[in-house]
Description:
Layout: E1 2-7, E2 12-19, E3 23-31, H1 33-36, H2 44-66, E4 75-81, H3 85-102, E5 106-110, H4 111-126, H5 131-138, E6 140-146, E7 151-159, E8 175-183, H6 189-199, H7 206-214, H8 239-249, H9 253-268, H10 273-278, H11 282-310, E9 314-318, H12 325-338, E10 341-343, H13 347-350, H14 355-366, E11 385-386
Parallel strand pairs: 1-4, 4-5, 6-9, 8-11, 9-10
Antiparallel strand pairs: 1-2, 2-3, 6-7, 7-8
The chain binds 5'-O-[(R)-(carboxyoxy)(hydroxy)phosphoryl]adenosine and zinc ion.
Residues 10, 147-149, 190-191, 193-194, 205-208, 211, 319-321, 323-324, 351-352 line the site of 5'-O-[(R)-(carboxyoxy)(hydroxy)phosphoryl]adenosine (KG4).
Amino acid sequence: MLVLGIESSCDETAAAVVADGERVLSNVVASQVLTHEKYGGVVPELASREHLRQIVPVVEEACRRAGVTLNEVGAVAVTEGPGLIGSLLVGLVYAKAVAMALRKPLVGVNHLEGHIHAVLLEAKIAGGATPTEIEQSLFSGVALVVSGGHTSLFRVEARGPGSAQASERSSRATAFSYTQLGKTRDDAAGEAFDKVAKLLALGYPGGPVIDRLARFGDAQAVPFGRVRMKGNPFDFSFSGLKTAVLYRVRGTALAKEAEERRAWREAAGRVTPDDLGARCSRETLDLVAGFQNAVVTDLVERTLAAAERAVVRSVLVSGGVACNSLLRARFAAEAERTGFRVAFPSPQLSTDNAAMIAAAGYFKLMAGERADSSLTAHASLPLGDVQ
Length: 387
Ligand code: KG4
Ligand code: ZN
């Protein structure tokens, strides 16, 4: 079955065609980075307008690259939330119109479920076992979704096709269930990266540039305390780390350096990360290295503690921050040390894309789920139960 996926929850307009939930025939992403970078973050009104401009050409391009016409698509899967409401509505209304005009089934997908399915999709692309084996082995675990909008931990489970637990409705396909174990109480991890980068005039989005510059700094030079919170040990909080950076910069030579960098960036137009690195003092490089180390340490420790508590051996890590090289290295080292299996999507499937929405939608369609004409967008949309 060919599923057309459509994703427009934040600042990427994306469409993809995926066969049987496992073969990516096309995966087109129109980024709005150039629109938002001068503001150091996503401006919702501008994002909606950009989606309106991009949605038709992006879907056409996804079909062209997949070598199919819209008529040959079997169903449409679209992100229904969570996200920016004006952005979500553009993809959703377009998906509804396509599905109604072509008389194809339509299904709404939770953006976070999409990110989790990106890990599964990647594992299936890598192969090595049957799709059902991959589903069963990965989906008895804990999933960390970590991006610019979200930082959440889930317990994930799969009920196999035809298994004793599979409901009659879902007997043709694996069904997945989710329990939220924790989430951020303030900033998402990617949001903290973006805000620190904005403060230090390092550009937008902040994650990739901090990832790169931190390699040249000493993460131990600037002490960052552990994130401590009362209550649920699987909740996150990153605003304190961001504020710690602010206090180390405000009123110091680092603030002056950042202002000079800001003026230089504005005059220079587009700059490469190497140009930027050459304009950062050792203190700035040490500060971003220390900040990144503190965020990554917290993400890895809470996730592995959640996996231990849930008595599972599989950890799925997805979302834009899953591209972070220190995060990947740290999880890989911990996996080796402790015997956990840690799985990531490729960088293209980690950041927002529509292949993950088509892949997640496929299982819903196989389970018989269909959206009717009342399908609408939700700025907040919980995934699964909350523990
Ligand atoms: O998943 P995504 O594309 O969109 C959301 O759903 O938010 O994630 C974007 C976020 C941004 O905050 C960006 O700074 C962060 O992911 N990001 C990274 C890296 N690449 C992207 N953060 C840390 N290190 C990276 N290499
Ligand atoms: Zn996302």
